[in-house]
Amino acid sequence: MLASIAATAVLLAACSTGNNDNTQAQPALTKGSRYEAAEKMAGCMRGLGWDITVDPDGGWRSTNGIPVAQKDQYEKDTAGCETKFGYDKPPPPLTQEQAEARYDALVAVGKCVKGLGYDTPPPPSKQKSVESMVSSGDPLWDPYQFVAGSNSSAELDKVFTKCPQP
């Protein structure tokens, strides 16, 4: 699943050693379908009793965090919802043209994120990233990964609003 890319990424998998873990990795979809997918996942998770928020970038997360004692159940429910909608499958590889456009868009977002003061290391070379996206769908780098984890939901919302998901 693209949780590995989103862990690399959007999309926002954070490990917590505290009481809450309130981010969840998202499938990489087009901007329009990403939001629709987030709504589906949120609806499924709400149906299982979780309080879920859909973010402006088309991601979704637990509104109030996940208590450590409920993390295993949350992950099990997330996996069940992903399977229900087919989001547990890796994304299809991109064409050369799509991969080049995706790389350029991620670099632009990276500049935006860096402009907000986040430490974002340089992306891999365009050639390596494009080759990876064509073969596996993985861009090898996502600027949002350098924001997620230690920031509040309000801070993440600010970043996604100012630097929207491509």
Structural class, by secondary structure, is mainly alpha
β-strand number: 2
DSSP helix fraction? 40-55%
- The coarse overall form would be globular
Strand order of the largest sheet: 1-2
Enumerate how many helices there are, as a single number. 6
Low-confidence stretches: 1-32
Order of helices and strands: HHEEHHHH
Strand content: under 5%
Most strands sheet = 2 strands, antiparallel
Radius of gyration: 15 Å
Count of individual domains: 2
Q: What would the average pLDDT be, to the nearest integer?
A: 77
The first-to-last residue Cα distance is 19 Å
Q: How would you explain this protein's 3D organization?
A:
Helices cover 47% and strands 4% of the residues. By secondary structure, it is mainly α. The protein folds into two domains: 3-85, no CATH class; 96-162, no CATH class. Strands 1-2 form a two-stranded antiparallel ribbon. Strand 1 and strand 2 form a beta hairpin. Helix 2 crosses helix 3 (71-85) and helix 4 packs across helix 5 (126-135). The longest helix has 20 residues, at 96-115. The model is unreliable at 1-32 (pLDDT under 50).
Short description:
The chain has 166 residues and is mostly helical.
